[in-house]
Amino acid sequence: MTNPLFTVVKGNPTEEELAALTQVLTDLQQEAKSRTGGGHRNLWGRPATRNHGPVVFNPSAFNSQTLF
């Protein structure tokens, strides 16, 4: 058994009104999911472990710099 999408806490709606409200809420939910799906996601602030690849140590990387 599935949980209801919403519950009516006040009033006495008809079956047609409940069906219309259900349809509107379902359409809004599908529209919101379609807007957020796909596209570029900037994961800069994501608190997960980042895979930057191996760290390369180069002791002569800044030899040409006068003030380091």
Question: Can you describe what's shown?
Answer:
- The chain has 68 residues and is mainly alpha-helical.
- The model has no long low-confidence stretch (mean pLDDT 78).
- It has 1 helix and no strands.
- It has one helix spanning 15-36.
- GO terms for molecular function: acetyl-CoA carboxylase activity; propionyl-CoA carboxylase activity.
- InterPro entries: ACC_epsilon.
- This is Acyl-CoA carboxylase subunit epsilon.
- Residues 31-57 are annotated as: Disordered.
Distance between the termini: 68 Å
Please write the string of helix (H) and strand (E) elements. H
The total strand number stands at: 0
Q: Count the DSSP helices.
A: 1
- Mass-distribution shape: rod-shaped
For the CA atoms, what is the radius of gyration? 27 Å
Class by alpha and beta content: mainly alpha
Major β-sheet profile: none
Would you identify the regions where 5 or more consecutive residues have pLDDT less than 50?
A: none
Percentage of residues in helical conformation:
25-40%
Give the overall average pLDDT. Answer: 78
Report the portion of residues in β strands.
under 5%
Features:
rod-shaped, mainly alpha, 1 helix, 68 residues, 0% strand
Provide a short characterization of the protein structure.
With 68 residues, the chain is an all-alpha fold. The protein has one helix at 15-36.
Provide the fold topology.
Elements: H1 15-36
